[in-house]
Each structure stands twice: as C-alpha cells, then as structure tokens.
Amino acid sequence: VHDSIARREVEAARGHTVKSTGDGLLATFDGPARAIRCVGAIERGVATLGLHVRAGLHTGEIELVGDDVGGIAVAIAARLTSLAGSDEVVVSSTVKDLVVGSGIRFEDRGIHTLKGVPGEWHLLAVACD
Predict the structure, then answer these.
(1) Which of 12, 64, 73, 86 has the highest CB neighbour count under 10 A?
(2) Measuring CA to CA, which residue among 69, 118, 107 is closest to residue 85?
(3) How far is CA 30 from CA 2, 13, 16, 101, in A?
(4) Distance CA 89, CA 32 (A)
(5) In terms of C-beta distances under 8 Å and separation of at least 24 residues, what long-range contacts does 48-54 make, across chains too?
(6) What is the C-alpha separation between 55 and 61, in angstroms, rounded?
(7) Long-range contacts: 22-25, Cβ < 8 Å, 24+?
(8) Residue 61 DSSP SS3
(9) How many angstroms separate the CA atoms of 78 and 26, rounded?
(10) CA 52 to chain CA mean position, Å
(11) What are 60-101's pLDDT values in tens digits?
C-alpha cells in the first residue's frame, strides 16, 4: 500500500518513479519544490497507515543507466536520506537555493561530510508548518 500511495503522489507531482528500494523509492522530478511538496503528500498519505517517511533531496546531474539513474547526485540524495529522521526531509543547500521564493522554509542542520562525496555539505531540513 505504501508503494501505491508513493507512486500515485510522484505521478501527481509530474515526477518519475525510477525504482523501488525495498522500503522506499527513488524518483526524479523536474524541479526541487515539486519534489519537496511530493514528499509532504506521501507523508500525509502513509500517516493513515501508521507509517513515517524520511527523505533526502538533492538537485544535480544524473546518469541514465537503462531504466535506472546513477551518478554523484543520486549518491548525495542517498546520503541525505540516511541522515533524515522520522518524517523529516533533509536537503542540500543547492535545493534550498533553487526554491527561493517558493514559500518553503528550512531549518539549518549544519555542515556535514558525506561518505564517498568530496567536500563539506551544508544541509537543511524542510520546516514543518
């Protein structure tokens, strides 16, 4: 049921579900604000099932590998997901910069190093309203 709710919301947000990851999914979107709002819709949908969502979002170049995607942007999103708490969406500062003017608010999560990713990354969490 979780997967059907998530896939429905991704489709409604004009996203593309790339694959199921067992207890989650990997999706791409044409814009980061749409992705953030989609996660919120998924959270509301699965809350009725007593489930919680954690998500990581990053915007960057991806590599198309058949029906799959890869590359550093995918790795960064995966690392951000691993840092997210229950019902939390962790984003890179790249995402924050690109959604200026959208009304989406963020809470600072500090500077982090991400396994297998060069440099330090300023991370934020989407603020709950």
Answers:
(1) 73
(2) 107
(3) 23, 9, 9, 17
(4) 12
(5) 49/1, 49/2, 49/5, 51/2, 52/86, 52/87, 53/86, 53/87, 54/81, 54/84, 54/85, 54/86, 54/87, 54/88, 54/89, 54/90
(6) 19
(7) 24/81
(8) coil
(9) 9
(10) 14
(11) 999 999 999 999 999 999 999 999 999 999 999 999 999 999
| 8 A C-beta contact, residue 74 and residue 65 | no
- Cβ atoms of 17 and 7 closer than 8 Å: yes
Which helix or strand (DSSP H or E) is residue 33 part of? Answer: helix 32-47
Which residues is 117 bridged to in the sheet? 114
Token look-up 């059907």 returns 4
User: Structure pTM?
Assistant: 0.94
**What is the rounded distance in angstroms from the CA atom of residue 69 to the CA atom of residue 110?**
28
Residue 86, number of CB atoms within 10 A of its CB: 9
In the three-class reduction of DSSP (H, G, I as helix; E, B as strand; rest coil), residue 48 is classed as: coil
Distances (CA, A) of 129 to 45, 72, 103: 17, 31, 11
